Every structure is written in C-alpha cells, then in structure tokens.
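ESCALATION

Customer reports they have been waiting on this structure for their group meeting. Please prioritize. Original submission:
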Amino acid sequence: MNRRLPTAAVALLATLALASEPADAAGGVPAAHGFVPRQVTIKLAGDRVARTIGLRPGADVRAVAAAARRDPRVQYAVPNYVATASLAEPGEEREVPNDPGPIAGVPGPPGGWVARQWNFLPWQGPATPLLPVSPGGIDAIGAWENLVAARRPGAQGVTVAVLDTGIAYRTLSPDFLRSPDFSAGQFVKGYDFVDHDKLPLDENGHGTHVAGTIAEKTNNGIGLTGLAYRAKLMPVRVLDSAGRGRADQIAQGIRYAIGHGADVINMSFNFSCGRRVPGVDEALRQAYERGVVTVASVGNVGSEGCVSAPATGPHTIGVGGSTAGGCIGNYSLAGKGVDVLAPGGGAPAVGCPSVSSDPIYQVTLKFGSTEEFGEPGDYVGTSMAAAHVSGVAAMVLASRTIDPKTKKKGLVAAVTKRLRHSARSLGLPKTRQGAGLIDAATATAPS
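Update from on-call: job pushed to the front of the queue and completed.
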C-alpha cells in the first residue's frame, strides 16, 4: 500500500473529485451500514491490490466511483463500504471439563458450565446427571475426545485469526486487562488496523466473546469452555469500538492473517445487502489459494436485508444461526450464501416446536468496560454462530481426518466438505439451513 499511484491515476481521481456534484454533509463512519465519506477504493489494471483514495471536500463518492469505472485503466472503483458486527438484538458416562461457569459471585460446581453452554452439549444419546442432552448442541465433548485420541487435544497446532473488535488478550494497564479465561500463551502476534498499531485490544466485547467460543481455555477450573481450546488465537482488529469497520481495513486484515500463518479466519460481521466489496473478495480469494479456511456470519434480520458479504465471498463458509431448541433463529437470514447453521441462540423462527431462546454465553467484557468481565446474556446472532464453525474448522484441521497430502485449495474444500457432510438437517430448505446444523463430534471422527 506504500507504492505511489501512477500519475495518470492521480490526475484521473483529482479530475473526478472536482467534477462531481456536492454530496450531502457527512461525518465519520456512519452508525448504520454505509461507506466512509470522501473515500473511494480503486484498483487499476495491473495492480496487485486496490488502494483507498481520499477525495476533495464536497465530492460525491458514488459519482466519483461511477465515473472512475468508465475509464479503461480502472478495474473497479467503489465506495469504501462499512461492515457491522453481526450481533442480533437481543450414553456412557463421559468426562466433563471442570470449568465451573460464572467467574464472579458464588463459584459454580466443577462442570457447572453445562448449565449455560447448551450449545456445546451432545444432541442425542442418554442424558446423565453430569451431562444433559441439548437438541441445539453440537457435541463438543465428542469432538474433544476425538482430538485427544488423535493426539491433537483442543486443536493444538492450529491458528485461528479473529477479525473483529479486538480481543482482551493482554494486560496493558489497569484499564486494559486480559480476560481471566484466556492465557497469555495462547495468542500469536496480531495487529490493529483501526488504530494502526500492534495492540488489537477489545473496546467493545464482541471480539472477546467470539474468540471465547472459538478457543477459551477448557478444563482449567475457570469460567466457561471453548471449542478449539489449545489452538492459537490471532487478534486482528478491523472493527471499531462501535462494531463498525471499513472495507479497505478488513481486506488488509485478511491479508495480514494469511501472511502471518492463520489456518482459519473468522469474520463475524457483514456489509449491507447487495454491497459489492471487490477488495475484500480479492483478499478472500487469496486466502483460498493459500489454503486458509474463511468463515463468516450471513447477517441478521433487521441489520441486513439479505445474506451479504463477506459470507457471499469466494469459497467462504456462510453461517446461519440456530437456537437451544434445535430450530433456526428468527434473526437468521436465508439465501444461497447459507452453507451451514451453528448455535447463535435467541428466539426461534415461527413454526418451531421449541420456544427455548437461551443466548450464547461466553466470558467477555461487561458493557462499557475494558477491565471488568462477566457472562452477559444478550449475545445472540450469526456472529456467535460463525465462531462455532471457525472453532470446529480448527478441530477438523487438527483431527487427522483429512489426507495430509492435501494442500491449499484442496484443504479448504476438504474442511468445507467435512463440515457440510457431517451436519444434521433441521428439515428446512437449503436456502435457510444450508447443509444443516454442524456436528463437531461427527466432523472430527475418523472416517
């Protein structure tokens, strides 16, 4: 991004900005879906990556982009769109991890996490006093057992990049503390593309919650459990404290994760319906070519109008949300971009026989704080669902169920196929459920 633009391109954009009609007054990044004022993302023929160009005051962003696209030197030109975190408004006796549940107040009993984390429980088989059955569960315990047998417990050796609002991954000062259910050793170096520094700390809570579902410490006697609990987490901050992120910074974040060894990239955010974000698509295509599995939320009713980017991007696994009762969530969007479902919690869609509407619990920041933690009960949506798929994708990579000779594009295809083929149908059209609700135990079981 540091190479200078060709003189012809600079002259082109300067001319377009001056020629455009005045736009309505614009402030910072809008609270709703939109684009960054006075910025156009442009890619010239022959360039490797797109560039974001600042326009003159009063420039009409859409008019500038449209005029630029008419120039034969321009491969594409679009506004610098904004994405938003996809958070909806509110048998045999088996070994159970000892995580007690709440991190504050009266300590829970060993194994007390099962009272809150319905999403990780088995969905079939006989219930026991220690391990109930949950119709909306994905059987994380079965998957944990499979990985222990494969000598890769907790997806050891896999790295998951969390592109989000950051993670409470380290203590910087009394005002920024590491989440008590993470350890310092489970993080690899990340980057903050919002503040442009090497400290992608969470100022929202969304990213820490998502990261917790993927890889919170398990069987450590603290708080709740995470899926790929021995995987490495890479914090990549691309969303600000309000959960909004620019397309160009998101594309940079994807490329950073690829270049720094991520095996899986989680994206629990969406652009608005129908937005074309070619820079992000290019980065996702690069991830596929390098063998990196990309996972994204499909979006939520009320926030988005249709299944949207990055879930619709090249070879990205689009994830809808399901409920504690094993139904599709009433917030989960339908469309051809839905590949699988995973627990997102919340209320079920009309017609579901279950009324269970528990949220997804995970240890994260309390609202408005960067140093107080709890298990808030208002995290519901496809953001939460995508995190489950990223965690299980990491577990599949670690499970030794994929031919070790499989490389790059073939590896992405193999993980995607395994997630889809092991999913269980909820009896809904493919546009609503994709292949169905993921099953972590079946996905990681030897063939």
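Sent to customer with the following note: Confidence is low (pLDDT under 50) at residues 19-28.
Escalation resolved.
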